[in-house]
Amino acid sequence: MHINIFSLYKCFIYKYKLKFNKNNTIYIVMKVIDNQALYDKLRQEYPWFSYDSFEIYTNKNSIDFYFVFNISNKYIFKPTYNIPFTKAVDINKLKEADFIQNIIFHIGLIELISYWKVTCSPIIYIKPKYMFEEQIKWWKKLYYNGLGEFFWHNNIKVQIDEFVEITITGDKPFIHSINKTYDDNKVLVPVGGG
């Protein structure tokens, strides 16, 4: 079933106002909306959000992957991605490489928080791989601090200890760490915000 995850609720909408100064410079002023009650309601309606799995496929000149996310057994969806490569890369070897599996798994951890904002579920299940307690704490802190603007705009008052519980059900950690050296002229470093 394909769904538009953002159509679940008309919630957490930022309201914008345009203001001009003397030099006709446009300033966008974002209004804070009190959505604490909606946040609490969504947490009851969607008690958990699950990162169920990820899959990697190779094509002639690209690697494709998708994640399976589950919202309290009410909605299951699979965001899909495609990364094209030059012919110089042996894609079949790349697919099997532990470090690529590790990277794709972690991309899924980043992706899930974007979809989590629709449900604000109090529990997140991570099923594809095992994570150590130190990693869980790191990800929880990253999510919480990364959601600062979301919490502020929606006037949501929540502390890091109560905002989400991350539960790991995967039993196999990645054995190999990523210790690779790359040519500085051939590495794409993804930097973004928002």
From the structure above, extract its key features:
disordered N terminus, 194 residues, 8 strands, globular, six-stranded mixed sheet, alpha/beta, single chain, two-stranded antiparallel sheet
SSE topology:
Elements (H helix, E strand, L loop, with lengths): L14 E6 L5 E6 L4 H10 L2 E11 L3 E10 L3 E3 L2 E5 L6 H6 L1 H22 L3 E4 L6 H14 L1 H6 L6 H4 L1 E4 L26
Parallel strand pairs: 3-7, 7-8
Antiparallel strand pairs: 1-2, 3-4, 4-5, 4-6
Please state the average pLDDT score. 81
Query: First CA to last CA: what distance?
Result: 29 Å
Number of helices: 6
Largest sheet: 6 strands, mixed
Structural class: alpha/beta
Computed Rg: 20 Å
Question: What is the 3D shape?
Answer: globular
> Using DSSP, what is the number of strands?
8
Strand content: 25-35%
Taking pLDDT < 50 over at least 5 consecutive residues as the criterion, the unreliable ranges are 1-15
Helix content: 25-40%
Order of helices and strands: EEHEEEEHHEHHHE
